[in-house]
Design goal:
Shape: elongated
Number of strands: 28
Distance between the termini: 61 Å
Number of helices: 15
CATH superfamily of the largest domain: P-loop containing nucleotide triphosphate hydrolases
CATH class of the largest domain: Alpha Beta
Structural class: alpha/beta
Helix content: 25-40%
């Protein structure tokens, strides 16, 4: 059959893995030969090399094409070739099985949509076979079949095949991996590769080629739910153009978009493209575009736009599989930069569940560091909420890299959302924002009118540190400068809005913080700079700060901690002061931070400009 004349309707990336010498290259050579897919002159060239080296021709040599590889008798690199069969183009990644080249195997498997895993019928399930199966699962390859090769060496015995299938299924079941098929073959002799084998009449399942047809192609990215990662926001004339790349789905003028994690919403007014005569009205996956919205909502780089019915996940933590290449070990508790799509945020490793050494796939547990060329299952926690997807659903928003001191030192896939302690409040904020009734005056209008953006300046610390006095001093300074500021004293809420709470509920902080955050959100919507202390929360101010951040997000919360000697400030504190302190100097420092964060314009005028940084 001449497959060169066929035009494929789709393609599928297949990785082939297995223990060294279990017959991967022989299987591949047989697949290409039996489907008539060898390039012109390929067979003759390899046969000539065999004659030159005094070797008998083998199908494996069709893929072990480099002289160095043929001399060593093992596959070193990941060879990428393809063939067409029944209207589908199979892009084959022949990954090495030798333990010294496992890094290349991981690189190949990470790009695969499905896999074939080979086991030698004579040798049975080896330790390397188990490790490769586990590694495929670790890398997120969920479609795979097991090919039991060299059945001719065991007399095509069904009982040998059954023992291997039973043992390997039990092993794979430990991490919930389910192979699509077990296929008994002899790649050397062509049994059950292209044609069914008469020597194994006891086997009624598909051949290897038929098994490949079972694997499903992922839905075209343009047909998946929308994911637009915001790259930047540009201002042209009076327009604010949000730019980014559509990694999945499609959009059009009039679509209602939700930006995560900020929950901002608006309709697409126009779709902008560069260097074309007429502007489009729609776009799809793979395109880098700009859009304008029907109202001026503030969104920033790193947010993900989607349609409301299929939103990405949002959390400050997730579980992941990471491949580490850094010069220094990946250590629990150290700070790294996390990059998911266009989002960049500080993070740390909070738990290392398991480590796999890629040299021999030995597993370690209980370690606090991941060394170079090791794969680890771990939990990451980010400094701020991150929008993401599981890698099984979306490649672009389900993969990430870790940066260690300006160097990309590792990468991985997100396997599970970790529910943090702000999940309930985040869900409440999303429901509230989705149903928010807006007036005719938007946040941008208020910012231009007032000369500043809305924000919260939150003072934390113990008793007798001067929090309340500094808060009142800051409010007075802001108002004196013509800013719209308001002192939100929690004591007023305690005696009013919180009067119905029991003493037990007040002591638990959570409900008081929720109500406080909702009041602060209302004041922020009016464009005010809210100045407050955490006095009503007592020693629970650390939890209260996180709750308030969640409820008013994406408005900035500038946290100012008034500390005593040797006191650890809450996480994500912006300014630490030793209180009591020089209140005038402290006020000036906070004002400078407000300018740096883009809350205050440099000058109040008819058209103030902002550099808003959350």
């Amino acid at each position: 059959m001449d497959n060169h004349t066929q035009k494929p309707s789709e393609n599928l990336n297949i990785v082939i893995v297995g223990h060294v010498d279990h017959g991967k290259s022989t299987l591949l050579g047989r697949l290409y030969a039996d489907t008539g897919s060898l390039p012109d002159g390929k067979l003759e060239k390899v046969q000539a090399i065999c004659r030159q080296q005094g070797k008998e021709f083998e199908y494996a040599f069709l893929f072990d094409a480099f002289l160095e590889e043929q001399e060593q008798g093992i596959t070193i690199d990941t060879a990428r070739t393809f063939f067409i069969w029944k209207g589908r183009q199979y892009i084959i990644i022949d990954a090495p099985g030798h333990k010294e080249f496992l890094k290349n195997m991981i690189s190949g498997a990470a790009r695969a949509e499905a896999a074939l895993l080979l086991i030698d019928a004579l040798e049975g399930v080896r330790e390397q076979s188990k490790k490769h199966g586990y590694l495929l699962s670790l890398l997120g390859v969920r479609q795979f079949a097991v090919v039991v090769n060299k059945m001719d060496l065991v007399g095509y015995r069904q009982d040998v095949f059954n023992v291997i299938e039973k043992e390997y299924r039990e092993f794979l079941g430990q991490f919930k991996a389910v192979p699509a098929q077990f296929v008994p073959v002899s790649a050397k002799l062509g049994d059950n590769i292209f044609n069914r084998s008469e020597k194994m009449s006891w086997y009624a399942g598909p051949t290897v080629l038929d098994t490949l047809s079972i694997f499903k192609k992922e839905a075209a990215r343009s047909e998946q739910p929308l994911r637009l990662s915001v790259q930047d926001v540009y201002k042209f004339d009076a327009r604010r153009i949000i730019t980014g790349r559509i990694t999945a789905g499609r959009l059009k003028v009039g679509d209602h978009l939700v930006f995560s994690p900020s929950n901002k919403r608006a309709n697409i007014k126009t779709v902008e493209a560069f260097n074309i005569e007429s502007q489009p009205t729609e776009a799809q996956a793979g395109q880098s575009i700009g859009i304008t919205l029907d109202e001026q909502v503030f969104v920033e780089r790193g947010e993900i736009a989607s349609h409301q019915d299929q939103l990405p996940l949002v959390s400050t933590a997730f579980r992941a599989n990471v491949f580490w290449l850094g010069k220094r070990p990946l250590e629990r508790g150290r700070k790294y930069q996390l990059r998911v799509a266009t989002k960049e945020v500080d993070c740390e490793v909070v738990a290392i569940h398991r480590i796999i050494d890629t040299m021999d796939l030995a597993q370690q547990q209980g370690s606090s560091a991941v060394n170079k060329n090791q794969v680890a299952e771990l939990t990451l926690r980010a400094k701020a909420p991150v929008a993401f997807d599981l890698s099984a659903s979306f490649e672009a928003t389900g993969r990430f890299v870790l940066v260690d001191e300006y160097d990309i030192a590792g990468g991985g896939i997100i396997t599970e959302q970790v529910h943090d302690d702000q999940e309930f409040l985040r869900a409440e904020a999303r429901r509230r924002d989705f149903a928010w009734v807006k007036g005719e005056v938007g946040v941008e209008d208020r910012a231009q009118q007032y000369g500043h953006r809305a924000a919260v300046v939150l003072f934390t610390g113990g008793r007798h540190t001067g929090k309340s006095f500094l808060a009142r001093t800051l409010e007075g300074r802001l108002v004196a400068d013509g800013r719209h500021a308001y002192l939100l004293d929690g004591e007023n809420l305690r005696r009013g809005l919180d009067a119905d709470l029991t003493d037990e509920e007040r002591g638990q902080t959570a409900e008081m913080a929720r109500r406080y955050g909702e009041v602060a959100r209302l004041l922020i919507d009016t464009g005010l700079i809210v100045v407050s202390t955490t006095n009503p929360f007592g020693l629970g101010y650390r939890e209260a700060v996180q709750a308030i951040r969640t409820l008013v997000h994406p408005a900035p919360v500038i946290a100012v901690h008034m500390s005593k000697a040797d006191e650890e400030p809450p996480p994500n504190t912006d300014i630490v002061l030793s209180g009591p302190t020089d209140f005038d100097a402290a006020t000036r420092r906070i004002m400078e931070e407000l300018k740096r964060r883009g809350v205050l314009a440099q000058a109040i005028g008819s058209k103030p400009t902002f550099q808003y940084s959350i």
